[in-house]
Amino acid sequence: MGMEKRSTRLKIVLDLAVRKEEAALKQLQRAQQLLHQEREKERQLQQYMQDYQTQLQQQQQGNLHIQSYLNLQNFMAQLGQAMTQQQNQITQAEKQVAACLASWRQLHEKKKGMQEHIEKCRQQEQVEQDKQEQKLIDEFSQRRNRF
């Protein structure tokens, strides 16, 4: 055959789909890692808040200077704001993970569909090749029977 088989030509498209899927998977992994880091920052902020609350309770039991008390209260308020901001960061990171996951799934399904299409092409090419071979065998048989 002078022309390349369709399944062979489609392999280029499949290779591109595979590369796109792999890139989407890497992006998903990066987004998941970022989400993990943001959650770890939140955990640390929660730990700081807990530590300072414990420190405040201990100092309230003793003689706490009013300025120290106000400074501690002010710092805890700032920590609370930082925790709110961190929760917003986590929400954004979760949205990014969801978007990356949706993108990867779409590209994965596209690749899978291309693989199935190529397999159907290969099967059809095999059927056509089998028919061609049978035709040649039949022609050879007919010629042989004439002589």
Uncertain regions spanning at least 5 consecutive residues: none
Order of helices and strands: HH
Give the CATH architecture. Orthogonal Bundle
The structure class reads: mainly alpha
Give the number of helices. Answer: 2
Give the gist of this structure:
It is found in: Cell membrane. The chain has 147 residues and is mainly alpha-helical.
Overview of the molecule:
- The chain has 147 residues and is mostly helical.
- It has a single domain, classed as Helix Hairpins, CATH 1.10.287.1700.
- The protein has helices spanning 6-61, 66-146.
- The two termini are 30 Å apart.
- The mean pLDDT is 91.
- It comes from Oleiphilus messinensis.
- Residues 123-147 are annotated as: Disordered.
- InterPro entries: Flag_assembly_chemotaxis_eff, Flag_FliJ_proteobac, Flagell_FliJ, FliJ.
- One of its GO terms (biological process) is bacterial-type flagellum organization.
Observed structural traits:
147 residues, mainly alpha, Helix Hairpins, single chain
Layout of secondary structure:
Elements: H1 6-61, H2 66-146
Helix pairs in contact: 1-2
